[in-house]
């Protein structure tokens, strides 16, 4: 399938504004250190065997003190604990959890990244200008529970899928596109990093890259390739994917943008009025072509 490699100019501009405003983005080599190791091989769809090209974890070090001292990350980490891993198991949302969802949204809406995204969405006629209404819109997009598995109850939401990850019939990993969750799961021994995905030896990523395509297993299930931002703040990801989600009513939206030095395809699937899934795919980076 031929894909247009020309970046969407307007979105590129607004997403680079968000990138520049993302003061809570961590610094590679200082706030965290990753170890890319080997290039991952091919894994057939549905197979749970992947040759491990990375003996050590992806994350060598993360300054957790710093993470937990930043309000948006602190609320974000609280949320990661709140979700059941298996789709089809109805989520029991306690009052405390509802409160945590709201605290997370309150904290991200205060950031310059989210204020910039809100302004843009209001200008495009996609979001209400009233902050309270905007928070409700964000809540519906990211936290409203819906049926992902037809046989069960309301078992999933956009936030859970994208940031936490879940399994389908205990066979396939869905979501888990977030670096903080990846790090925490790796630390607890649940995630095993298998190597980075790249087309050939020329496009080896760098350890200070903020977007990577990864192969890993999670609780024994293999994800052949998953795109992930590395080191960026939760508000940056929520802002970026909210904008892409609201741009179109299609079941699947895919746009090519150039953010900082990265040529990315950003993919968003909708589930009614909520996000089904969203992730970045790294197409190329300034210092190399993929």
Count of separate DSSP helical elements: 9
Question: Mind telling me the C-alpha Rg?
Answer: 18 Å
Summing up helix and strand content along with how strands pair, one would put the structural category as alpha+beta
Sheet having the most strands: 3 strands, antiparallel
* Subunit organisation of the chains: single chain
Q: Which percent range describes the beta-strand content?
A: 15-25%
Low confidence ranges? none
* Helix coverage percent: 25-40%
For the largest sheet, list the strands in their spatial order. Answer: 5-6-7
Order of helices and strands: HEEHHHHHHEEHEEEHEEE
- Describe the global form: globular
Strand tally, please? Answer: 10
Distance between the termini: 16 Å
Chain-averaged pLDDT: 86
Walk me through this protein's architecture:
It is built from 9 helices and 10 strands. By secondary structure, the protein is of the alpha+beta class. A 3-stranded antiparallel sheet has the order 5-6-7, with helices on one face. Strand 3 (166-168) and strand 4 (172-174) form a beta hairpin. The relative contact order is 0.19. The mean pLDDT is 86.
What is shown here, in short?
By secondary structure, this protein is an alpha+beta fold.
Features of the shown structure:
three-stranded antiparallel beta sheet, alpha+beta, globular, 34% helix, 23% strand, 290 residues
Compile the SSE list and pairings.
Layout (H helix, E strand, L loop, with lengths): L8 H13 L10 E3 L24 E4 L1 H6 L1 H10 L14 H15 L2 H12 L7 H12 L15 H7 L1 E3 L3 E3 L4 H9 L3 E6 L14 E8 L2 E9 L4 H14 L4 E8 L2 E10 L2 E12 L5
Antiparallel strand pairs: 1-2, 3-4, 5-6, 6-7, 8-9, 9-10
Helix pairs in contact: 1-5, 3-4, 4-6, 5-9
């Amino acid at each position: 399938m031929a894909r247009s490699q020309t970046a969407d100019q307007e979105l590129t501009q607004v997403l680079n504004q968000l990138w520049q405003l993302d003061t809570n983005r961590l610094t590679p080599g200082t706030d965290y250190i990753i170890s890319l190791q080997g290039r991952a091989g091919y894994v057939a769809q549905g197979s749970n065997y992947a040759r491990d090209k990375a003996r050590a974890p992806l994350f060598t070090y993360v300054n957790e003190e710093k993470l937990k001292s930043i309000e948006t990350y602190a609320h974000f980490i609280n949320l990661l604990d709140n979700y059941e891993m298996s789709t089809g198991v109805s989520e029991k949302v306690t009052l405390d959890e509802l409160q945590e969802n709201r605290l997370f949204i309150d904290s991200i809406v205060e950031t310059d990244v989210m204020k910039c995204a809100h302004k843009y969405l209001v200008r495009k006629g996609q979001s209400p200008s009233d902050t309270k209404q905007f928070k409700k819109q964000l809540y519906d997009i990211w936290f409203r529970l819906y049926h992902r598995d037809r046989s069960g109850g309301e078992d999933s939401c956009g936030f859970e899928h994208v940031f936490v990850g879940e399994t389908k019939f205990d066979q396939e990993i869905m979501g888990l596109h977030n670096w903080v969750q990846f790090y925490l799961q790796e630390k607890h021994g649940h995630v095993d990093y298998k190597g980075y995905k790249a087309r050939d030896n020329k496009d080896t990523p760098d350890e200070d890259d903020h977007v990577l395509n990864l192969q890993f297993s999670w609780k024994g299930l293999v994800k052949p390739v998953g795109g992930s931002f590395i080191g960026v703040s939760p508000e940056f990801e929520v802002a970026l994917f909210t904008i892409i989600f609201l741009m179109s009513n299609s079941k699947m939206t895919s746009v090519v943008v150039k953010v900082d030095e990265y040529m990315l395809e950003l993919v968003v699937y909708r589930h009614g009025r909520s996000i089904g899934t969203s992730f970045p795919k790294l197409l190329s980076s300034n210092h190399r072509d993929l």
